[in-house]
Design goal:
Blueprint lengths: L1 H8 L12 H40 L3 H4 L15 H33 L3 H14 L3 H15 L6 H25 L3 H9 L4 H28 L4 H6 L18 H9 L4 H32 L5
């Protein structure tokens, strides 16, 4: 009886698939062509911008003085000098911003995922983070100007620029931390709780290390973004053609501020410095992106 049932259940011949109709092939080809067309339309401006920046700025950055000297003592029409002072200002302002933004952003992200739940405070925090994500950089700069300079009476400085960049960087880190923590399997948390490990230690020892590679990638990308902002340095800091080691007082140059200043210089020297500073900023941001990729792969959880 069982043999007869097995024979009935067995297919008489392997299934045959009908050939794809010409209409479906046409639609598939049309969709593929549209996707490639959209990709080409999106990539053409990027390639054009990179080609223009490299063509006009690459010969400038090949000079060793470009990386080792400042523009102190040079007239606007004189050739020579470098952007050492602007590179220093860009990196210092970005790193000070990161020192403030990273702890705040990560703590907020951990609270929203691990402790907040559906509480009113968590909903209000999420709403404020969404608002900060869409705030233009000029609005953040004007807010810091009215608070730090007008209300508290401090002068324009690089530290004020870093505070404005914090407002732009924190929501990105919060969102990155939140999303990375959400993809950590709940089984890891439950296994830790089953062993009697407290929640805070589970977060520190298990959850955060598991999500650290993605969080670090988001931090590096956010830092690369804020270092290219122009509005905060225009409003909150004055340009100086020399290096200034005082973060809290006096003017300090940065690459975006240098480009804005040299744009008003009609001479060939200003034109060269403008494009040289542009490709220098592109190289620095590219370096940060590469470091983020390398750190993400190095810190990623091992599967074997």
């Amino acid at each position: 009886m069982m043999a007869e049932t097995a024979d009935l259940d067995r297919l008489a011949k392997p299934p045959t698939f009908q050939s794809i109709s010409g209409v479906r092939k046409f639609k598939n080809g049309m969709a593929t062509a549209l996707v490639w067309l959209a990709f080409g339309v999106a990539i053409i401006p990027l390639v054009w911008v990179l080609y223009t920046v490299i063509q006009r700025g690459f010969p400038i950055v090949l000079n060793a003085d470009w990386w080792q000297k400042s523009l102190s003592g040079l007239l606007s029409r004189q050739q020579g000098g470098g952007v050492y002072h602007a590179i220093y200002g860009t990196l210092v302002q970005g790193l000070v911003c990161a020192l403030i933004s990273v702890p705040v952003g990560m703590f907020v992200g951990v609270y929203l995922v691990e402790y907040g739940g559906r509480s009113r405070l968590a909903k209000a925090t999420t709403f404020m983070v969404d608002i900060l994500t869409g705030v233009p950089s000029i609005v953040a700069a004007l807010f810091i100007y009215s608070l730090w300079i007008t209300t508290f009476g401090f002068g324009r400085s690089a530290f004020a620029v870093s505070l404005a960049l914090v407002l732009l960087m924190v929501p990105v880190i919060v969102r990155t931390t939140e999303e990375m923590l959400k993809i950590v399997p709940d089984e890891l948390r439950e296994a830790s709780y089953a062993l009697g490990i407290p929640k805070w230690k589970t977060i520190v020892k298990i959850v955060l290390p598991t999500a650290l590679s993605g969080i670090l990638t988001g931090i590096m990308l956010a830092l690369a973004r804020v270092m290219g902002e122009t509005a905060p340095v225009l409003v909150l800091a004055a340009y100086a053609p020399f290096i200034n080691y005082n973060l809290f007082d006096g003017p300090m140059a940065s690459l975006p501020l240098l480009m804005t200043t040299e744009r008003n210089n009609p001479t060939d020297a200003g034109f060269d410095r403008l494009w040289g500073a542009a490709i220098t900023l592109v190289l620095i941001i590219t370096l940060f992106n590469l470091l983020a990729t390398a750190a993400s792969r190095w810190l990623a959880p091992k599967t074997k």
